Recover the amino acids of this structure.
């Protein structure tokens, strides 16, 4: 299975990772190899196997609906690049 | 050309849990920004989500209330996208195995007919934070208090064919979730948000047209307007020979305008996959049966009971049973006043008009059901006239006084119903108006006579300082004037 340059560029945009042309060529080869491996797995007959959502054969423990967290805004905001009036500031989202 | 309108809804219902779906942070509304956003909500490295049992209980209750199958084993997926109010870079949601499977809700139409709207499924997910785009030196402010608040997203089949049906469904759903107590139903605070999928097809055609989705409508009125607006927009395009672009649109209710947010080509590729941080959740029969046993009365059952217990007609019962708070208000009032029909009339008349005028809900009403009940008692036993009752209502509403009888005394609104005293007043007034009396007695047309009778009422009310019982005055007048 091959992956196209367009696919790689699209995935890079979705993942917000900048890749230059040279890297795209390398990724084309590396990702292609990984997909080949997945293709080999795809050859196994899994008709009678139920899809698995999690590798652990266990079920989720649930928590009672009780407030256990306290306000720690100050300590969280101490490591934020920019805050104001209790808000985290980020580059402007809409023009 | 004639068109069929096809509408499907997606409704986000904020669950009234005390804490978030995956952390023990409070979900209380109105806190200072980011004071209810802890390490899990902020997606700090090394944190793990632990699901809230109550969110599952509420989702199961919802499923039971809409006649749906409950998925015994549900799985969470990650829906990946970038936005600053989503710190993890993905929303934890359910795609393949939602907790609530297919169900249905029956709605009542204006013509009295009932219509079934099918529910495709409902899933549990987390809400995002809020972005504030006011100017922070050219930056955007982010408040993550809402991040991680539990939601159920309800997805219907495209079974609605008009804005009236869509709004009727939305109101019905609102009545169900508030009656269940799983959502506070406060739309102004975003507790319920609607996305509307709309397409048109030539009348009678089997093939669906291309649809658009209008997002984030937070009132029934905006929803109705947005549908009307979008139907007209699509109709204009199609009748000009154009074609509809599959896209997501935003509607501005204040301006009655909509604009494209993104088209299908630009649509996000969400790259869903099962969340490795969460194991599958298994719900057993005892959990479901316990939820079923604790289901409160739902609007349909309440309506039937109102018709039976209070002898209300279909319309009154439907209106008063739809909202649990309004229903409780009615029942409190009716427990004081014996005349449930009169209580119903006052709630739908004066009471609703005042709430609407002041954009209030029943929960913010300055008067209690007991007060309205006591007011109706005094109308029913003829202590006050309906004009006097309006004055009492006004005094209760403004908070001038909270006791109905005290207001009646203080304002001198008690009607005089002593027939002897009233007869004396009628005699006196008629003696002073001989011309009008003669005119009345010479009139043959009963309609005109009835009208002329009104001419005597003014002076009579004046003579009694507004306290004479108008009904008794009328009876005495007719008798004295000779039919």
């Amino acid at each position: 299975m091959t992956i196209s340059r367009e696919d790689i560029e699209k995935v890079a945009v979705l993942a917000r990772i900048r890749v230059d042309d040279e890297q795209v060529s390398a990724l084309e080869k590396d990702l292609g190899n990984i997909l080949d491996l997945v293709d080999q797995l795809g050859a196994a007959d899994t008709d009678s196997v139920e899809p698995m959502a999690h590798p652990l054969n266990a079920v989720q423990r649930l928590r009672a609906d009780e407030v256990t967290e306290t306000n720690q805004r100050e300590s969280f905001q101490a490591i934020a690049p920019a805050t104001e009036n209790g808000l985290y500031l980020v580059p402007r989202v809409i023009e | 050309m004639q068109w069929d309108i096809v509408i499907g809804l997606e409704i986000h219902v904020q669950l009234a849990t005390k804490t978030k779906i995956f952390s023990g942070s409070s979900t209380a509304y109105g806190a200072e920004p980011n004071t209810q956003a802890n390490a899990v909500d902020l997606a700090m490295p090394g944190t793990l989500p632990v699901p809230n049992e109550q969110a599952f209980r509420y989702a199961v209750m919802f499923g039971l209330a809409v006649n749906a199958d409950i998925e015994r084993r549900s799985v969470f997926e990650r829906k990946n996208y970038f936005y600053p109010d989503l710190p993890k870079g993905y929303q934890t949601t359910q795609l393949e195995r939602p907790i609530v499977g297919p169900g249905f809700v029956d709605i009542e139409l204006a013509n009295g007919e009932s219509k079934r709207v099918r529910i495709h499924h409902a899933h549990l997910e987390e809400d995002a934070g809020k972005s504030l785009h006011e100017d922070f030196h050219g930056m955007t402010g982010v408040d993550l208090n809402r991040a991680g608040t539990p939601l159920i997203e309800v997805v219907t089949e495209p079974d609605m064919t008009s804005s009236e049906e869509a709004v009727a469904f939305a109101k019905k759903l609102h009545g169900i979730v508030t009656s269940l107590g799983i959502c506070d139903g406060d739309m102004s605070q975003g507790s319920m948000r609607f996305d509307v999928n709309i397409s048109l097809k030539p009348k009678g055609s089997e093939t669906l047209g291309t649809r658009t989705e209008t997002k984030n409508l937070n009132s029934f009125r905006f929803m109705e307007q947005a549908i009307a607006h979008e139907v007209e927009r699509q109709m204009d395009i199609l009748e000009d020979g154009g074609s509809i672009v599959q896209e997501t649109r935003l509607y501005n209710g204040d301006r009655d305008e909509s604009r494209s947010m993104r088209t299908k080509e630009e649509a996000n590729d969400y790259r869903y996959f099962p969340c490795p941080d969460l194991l599958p959740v298994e719900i057993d029969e005892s959990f479901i049966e316990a939820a079923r046993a604790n289901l409160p009365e739902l609007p349909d059952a309440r309506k039937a009971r109102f018709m039976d217990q209070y002898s209300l007609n279909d319309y009154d019962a439907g209106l008063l049973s739809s909202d649990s708070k309004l229903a409780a208000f009615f029942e409190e009032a009716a427990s004081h006043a014996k005349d449930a029909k009169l209580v119903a009339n006052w709630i739908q008349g004066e009471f609703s008009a005042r709430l609407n005028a002041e954009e209030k809900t029943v929960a913010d009403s300055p008067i209690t059901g007991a007060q309205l009940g006591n007011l109706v008692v005094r109308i029913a036993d003829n202590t006050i006239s309906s004009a006097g009752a309006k004055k009492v209502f006004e005094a209760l509403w403004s908070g001038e006084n909270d006791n109905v009888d005290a207001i009646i005394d203080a304002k001198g609104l008690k009607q005089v119903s002593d027939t002897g005293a009233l007869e004396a007043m009628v005699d006196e007034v008629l003696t002073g108006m001989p011309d009008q009396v003669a005119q009345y007695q010479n009139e043959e047309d009963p309609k005109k006579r009835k009208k002329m009778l009104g001419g005597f009422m003014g002076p009579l009310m004046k003579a009694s300082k507004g306290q004479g019982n108008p009904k008794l005055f009328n009876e005495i007048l007719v008798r004295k004037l000779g039919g």
